[in-house]
Amino acid sequence: MKKKFLIYLAVLSLLCGCGEARVQEGGADSNTVTEGGSLLVGITQDLDSLDPHVAVAAGTDEVLYNIFEGLVKVDEKGNMNPAVAESYNISEDAKTYTFTLRDNVKFHNGDVVTTEDVVYSLKRCAGFTEAYDPNVLVESALSVVTDIYAPDKKTVVLTLSEPNTELIYYLNSAIIPANYKDQAKAPIGTGPFKFVSYEPLQSFVIEKNNDYYGTKPHLDKVTFKIFASVDAAFMELLAGSVDVMTQLQADQCKQLEDKYNIVGASYNLVQALFLNNDFEPFKNAKVRQALCHAIDRNEINRMISEGQGSLIGSGMFPGISTYFANDLVNYYDYNPEKAKSLLKEAGYENLSFTVRIPSAYDSHVATGQIIVEQLKKVGVTMKIDTIEWSSWLSDVYRNREFEATIIGLDANLAPSDILKRYNTTAKNNFINYKNASFDEAYKRGVNAIGTEDKIKYYHECQELLTKDAASVFIQDPAQLTAVKKGLAGYTPYPVYVFDASKIYYTYTK
Q1: What is the reported pTM?
Q2: Which of 30-44, 127-141, 384-398 has the lowest mean pLDDT?
Q3: Distance CA 331, CA 259 (A)
Q4: Which string of DSSP letters, residue by residue, matches 83-132?
Q5: Residues contacting residue 284 through CB under 8 Å, at least 6 positions apart
Q6: How far apart are CA 289 and CA 333, in angstroms?
Q7: pLDDT confidence of residue 247
């Protein structure tokens, strides 16, 4: 799966502590499963592409998860389970991955998945010449793959140039038909739902795939309604015309309790004030360190997440618990006087800069407003420039035309995935962080076979990011989702997906 990123709305946990998912199910008898019915899900971000290998935004992945599958597929516990493949094996030297395909898996057009389709899909994601498409966001983690081939009609083999035990987390890239050219208009996958229609800025509609090889969905139809703003979406929630919506604020949820159950869960994001390390003031590490001391993360957590978020001190979220460097969380204490001293040493006592924040996401704007007031106390002026989501993608992320931004970054559950964007030459290193020691530690971590060695090198990566103050790392926020009473089965995942296949009504609709 390609690395995605996400702008999160203010998400607050009213019902449970961060890291604990609690599903509340409504209806007189929540054990009664009613088959059929339709669902309307509210989202506030348009899809950036219907082609799963081209899409960049995590909000798009959230939706396309229901249509596409890879050789393996993540579940709600973070396990990578066989999907299009029925089984797989990783060699002892971690340089050969062998997959056995499941029998009679069908694409939504009725064609049976072949090894040709799988090889084509993986080569397309890896940027192999014979499947190269300039529109595809090539998965950098697959650069270690030297060959992808099918020795027979049931088997696909990947050979690697170096050991990599984490590659399995990237092999949930969508398997698509090799000879189908209309993915961007009418996507075809193997998932539990199939595509019906898409109207930009309005809706994305899917329906039950009756030929699905696995457990079939309960619902007949799901419509993702695209709202232009959070306020517009919330008004329809109040009216009860939206069945499910995630990424809500606490005060909003309090107004919904008569019609909705609220599901609280950890978000598994790295939320930060990201600094462009190529922008003149932020080329100076002392300036970046000063901002780390000047920003009170606890106050942000209290005001944005009611204290339910988890503070972070580097570029990894706590959900990757084995590798998360907890000892770095409090590396920078809130110390305005220290911040002033560092700014003076750096020659920036009157620092002024602009933070670019997508206008559709209230919580980022709110976070920015809190930081504006905090920085005033150390003589720093931060101006907020709110921009459209599409402009953020093109200007900030792709073209790196920004001084600072506030965003939440997601990742799959491979520890390398959240860290790889800080490699000097990484295409998605949008903050322009450069450190040869980080690059070397990262490479050693990826190549390590033993867990203890991986922990050592990935901890070193996090420590370098922290001590360099690559950005101001704030928190892994908490998330709230409103689920209309009478619905059950909504399940939070440790990655950013919306699984509609498990949702059902507990009464006849």
Answers
A1: 0.79
A2: 127-141
A3: 43
A4: SSEEEEEE-TTS-EEEEEEPTT-B-TTSPBP-HHHHHHHHHHHHT-GGG-
A5: 346, 348
A6: 11
A7: 79
pLDDT of residue 17: 32
Domains of the chain: 1-66+191-266+481-509 (3.40.190.10), 68-186 (3.90.76.10), 270-476 (3.10.105.10)
State how far the alpha carbon of 104 is from the alpha carbons of 85, 172, 210, 217, 386, in Å.
11, 19, 14, 19, 49
Q: What are the structure tokens assigned to 384, written together? A: 């907020």
120-124 own/partner pairs: CB under 8 Å, 24+ apart: 120/176, 120/178, 121/53, 121/173, 121/174, 121/175, 121/176, 121/178, 122/148, 122/156, 122/158, 122/171, 122/173, 123/148, 124/53, 124/176
Q: Which tokens belong to 188?
A: 């075809």
Measured in degrees and rounded to the nearest 5, phi and psi for residue 60 equal -75, -45
pLDDT tens figures, 198-230: 999 999 999 999 999 999 999 999 999 999 887
Q: Which value, to the nearest 10 degrees, does the dihedral of the CA atoms of residues 498, 169, 121, 43 take?
A: 20
Helix (H, G, I), strand (E, B) or coil at 155: strand
35 and 504 Cβ atoms separated by less than 8 Å = yes
CA distance linking residue 266 with residue 263, whole number of Å? 10
How far apart (Å, rounded) are the C-alpha atoms in residues 461 and 504? 43
Contacts of 381 by beta carbon, 8 Å cutoff, 6+ apart? 350, 351, 352, 353, 375
Beta bridge partners of 385: 356
**Partners of 96 in the β-ladder:** 159
